[in-house]
């Protein structure tokens, strides 16, 4: 199963880029994972609600264009379902058994995801009720995906 994390904007912070690279390397033996960054849209100062919707729509188009055809799409959404690491592992295992070839996790920008992204999503997943820097979410998500594969394979992991 191929895993992609498709995210709005570049991870400019060195520690985040290093974390992404580390987990992409660690996920190699499990089929790999890649982070795909799509261009973010400039948010006008004092943007109106309509302008914010336009920003999300443009970013959403870019996110969806980066999703492989037929992929299972998981939208990261603070209002989504919250799973434990073990529950994520169960779902990843089920997707493998069901023959899912591609899973794409979508991470929006500061304004979140568009309605079109939510409409295309097969699942809305929350990592926490807390708010995180949207570039840092990439590392947190990759770590949880890595942990899920380790759990599935019965390999040791930090509890």
Question: Could you characterize what this model shows?
Answer:
- The chain is α/β, with parallel strands linked by helices.
- The chain has a single domain (2-152), classed as Alpha/beta knot (3-Layer(aba) Sandwich).
- It contains five helices and five strands, in the order βαβαβαβαβα.
- It has a five-stranded parallel β-sheet.
- Helix 1 links the parallel strand 1 (2-8) and strand 2.
- The chain is globular, with a radius of gyration of 15 Å.
Proper CATH architecture? 3-Layer(aba) Sandwich
Find the structural class using helix and strand composition.
alpha/beta
Largest sheet: 5 strands, parallel
Order of helix and strand elements from N to C terminus: EHEHEHEHEH
Identify the overall geometry.
globular
Spans of at least 5 consecutive residues with low confidence = none
Distance between the termini: 25 Å
Main sheet strand line-up: 2-1-4-3-5
Percent strand equals: 15-25%
The top-level CATH class is Alpha Beta
User: In total, how many domains does the architecture comprise?
Assistant: 1
CATH topology: Alpha/beta knot
Brief synopsis:
The protein has 159 residues and is of the alpha/beta class. The chain has helices spanning 14-26, 49-65, 85-97, 115-120, 136-152, and strands at residues 2-8, 33-38, 72-82, 102-107, 123-126.
Question: How is the topology of this model organized?
Answer:
Layout (H helix, E strand, L loop, with lengths): L1 E7 L5 H13 L6 E6 L10 H17 L6 E11 L2 H13 L4 E6 L7 H6 L2 E4 L9 H17 L7
Parallel strand pairs: 1-2, 1-4, 3-4, 3-5
Helix pairs in contact: 1-5, 3-5
């Amino acid at each position: 199963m191929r895993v992609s994390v498709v995210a709005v904007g570049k991870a400019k912070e060195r520690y985040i880029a290093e974390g992404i690279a580390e987990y992409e390397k660690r996920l190699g033996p499990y089929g790999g994972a890649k982070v795909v960054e799509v261009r973010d849209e400039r948010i006008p100062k004092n943007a109106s609600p309509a302008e914010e919707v336009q920003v999300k729509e443009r970013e959403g188009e870019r996110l969806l264009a980066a999703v492989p055809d037929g992929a299972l799409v998981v939208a990261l959404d603070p209002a989504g379902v919250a799973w434990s690491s073990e529950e994520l592992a169960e779902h990843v295992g089920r997707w493998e058994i069901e023959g899912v070839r591609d899973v794409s996790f979508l991470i929006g920008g500061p304004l979140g995801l568009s309605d079109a992204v939510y409409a295309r999503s097969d699942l809305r997943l929350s990592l926490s009720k807390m708010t995180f820097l949207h570039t840092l979410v990439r590392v947190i998500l990759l770590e949880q995906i890595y942990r899920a594969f380790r759990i599935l394979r019965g390999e040791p992991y930090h509890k």
